[in-house]
Amino acid sequence: MDIDDLLDEVESKFVKNKSKPSAPKPPTKVIPKRSHLEDAIDDLLDLDIQDGPKVNKTTQKSMSKASLSESCSKTEPKRCFPVYLGGSEESMGRATSINKYACNELRCTACDFRVCTFDNMAWSKDTDYLFLRNNTPDFDKLKSKLKRKKGCRAYCCQCQWRNITELVELRDQELKWVCGKHKES
After folding, report:
1. Residue 135, exposed/middle/buried by CB under 10 A (0-12, 13-18, 19+)?
2. Does one domain contain both 35 and 105?
3. Global pTM?
């Protein structure tokens, strides 16, 4: 049985013909034993994209119940949506539309660098791109441009910096910061 016959069989079983009827198809060869290709196609069709891990039939048969439940309990890292920045009084973590937290896994897509945060600190007015480019993420070098400011959180990567005092959604078009995914247990 070739791939065209398999595709015709799948189409006849799963696709409803909403347009005009097509010309009759030549009869397909009947093979009593299932081929490896047929098993693979069945595995692909059986996948439930919405729920659970992708487990094919051969793997599922060989897995014990304990290992199968263990693989189902693992979760993939998730991103904040929406992404928030916040002052030092704000809790940090993964934000959702219900739980608003300042993201602590920010990454800059412009310089491809992790965003550093410093609680109860603010950037001085003379902070510039070249200073950050040469000194981030070394706090000992960065502290020369940081000043104490209660309630403020200083954010920076190698190309941008911000002083934030309250929880705000990240909407600044100049900032190319995104959530870099939170590892959850």
Report:
1. middle
2. no
3. 0.59
